[in-house]
Specification:
single chain; 18 strands; alpha+beta; 4-stranded antiparallel beta sheet; elongated
């Protein structure tokens, strides 16, 4: 490797020295987790490969932070461990040496393809030896600290948007429960002012026309999106619905994730599309689909399946069109806010991934 190759593509001003090649054994002490079941309940968090598990009264590390890295199972998701902590026996904890910055070390772990070091033929496994022999490139401590601070602040920003997104998703779930009548009720718990009439009980066959998707492979490439149970798939030159929006609901496979379809569109044969009747608001109908436990209507013994009959016979409670529209607008705006935070979150995660490539050698 040339000296030129030992510097990152993007670098903070003032740093010019090449980075040094070192083994992970020179930058961290890799320690083994242990069973915790003999311990009492307490304030010390216990971590596994998936994160926090429980709390106990003793720590494996009382005052030294570390990077957790899986020994078995999930071996490619290293994350920070703040002391005091305990780790189970499937999670190593790697304590940085005195001349190493914790956040920089964490980024160094993130930049390794740990799956390529899997030594098993079954459940993914990682050994201390595999970690210790892995090569990292390391700058001066001052440059480490600058990089560590940068990614620490970026991670905080990502966490902030993740929490906002999570809160909005939970809020939507709560509002779907409270703004639609519960079983046995004819009015919701929370209602817009001015609406007092009881909601009417109607079958889904009275509120939507359920249509079948079709194979698209005979079609040419074009501008019309094709959707399946997992969302967008490809684009073709014809549509099943040119001007009427609908709700997509799985016929086979994923049957419990209804989502909006904006015309024009085509759906594959595993995805029904339900077009609202003329007296029904699209966004309200979408919420009505979201409020049904479709898994309970699975008619198969294998791959989950849903029939038109099962959808059509399902009961929904429906208010006046004006109230539907108010509810539809409310959830439309809420969905836009959720999508905004989701996109910001994805953008920041992509920025982090890109900068880990460009700011490390």
């Amino acid at each position: 490797m040339t000296e030129q190759a030992k510097v990152p593509a993007i670098r903070f001003a003032g740093f010019t020295d090449p980075w040094e090649q070192r083994k992970f054994s020179d930058i961290v002490d890799v320690c083994s987790g242990k069973d915790y079941k003999h311990l009492e309940e307490g304030p010390i968090p216990v971590y596994g490969t998936g994160g926090f598990m429980t709390s106990v009264d003793e720590a494996l590390s009382y005052d030294r932070d570390a990077v957790g890295i899986g020994r078995k199972g999930t071996i490619d998701k290293p994350y920070l461990l703040k002391a005091p902590f305990w780790t189970v026996d499937t999670l190593f904890y790697a304590i940085p040496k005195s001349d190493m910055d914790l956040e920089f070390v964490h980024c160094s772990f993130l930049n390794v393809d740990w799956k390529s070091k899997d030594e098993s033929t079954g459940l993914p496994s990682l050994s201390k030896e595999a970690i210790n022999e892995t090569i990292a490139l390391v700058p001066s401590f001052n440059e480490q600290s600058r990089l560590g601070d940068f990614f620490y602040n970026l991670d905080n920003l990502i966490t902030l948007h993740q929490r906002k997104y999570d809160k909005l998703v939970i809020f939507k779930k709560s509002m779907l429960e409270k703004m639609f009548p519960k079983d046995g009720e004819s009015v919701p718990e929370i209602r817009f002012a001015g609406f007092t009439d009881p909601w009417e009980q109607r079958k889904f066959s009275d509120i939507v026309d359920v249509c079948s998707g079709k194979d698209y492979k005979h079609l040419e490439e074009g501008p019309i999106p094709v959707y399946g149970t997992g969302g967008f798939m490809t684009s073709v030159d014809e549509a099943l619905s040119y001007d009427r929006d609908a709700v997509g609901i799985g016929r086979k496979g994923t049957i419990d994730k209804p989502y909006l379809l904006k015309a024009p569109f085509w759906t594959v044969d595993t995805l029904f599309y339900a077009i609202p009747k003329s007296d029904m608001d699209l966004e309200f109908v979408h919420c009505s689909f979201l409020n049904v436990d479709w898994k309970s209507k699975d008619e198969s013994t294998g791959l989950p399946s849903l029939s038109k009959e099962a959808i059509n016979e399902t009961i929904a409670l429906v208010p006046s069109f004006n109230e539907q529209s108010r509810l539809g607008d409310f959830f439309y705006n809420l969905d836009n806010l959720i999508t905004l935070h989701q996109r910001k979150l994805e953008l920041l995660q992509n920025i982090k991934k890109s900068l880990l490539d460009k700011m490390f050698v």
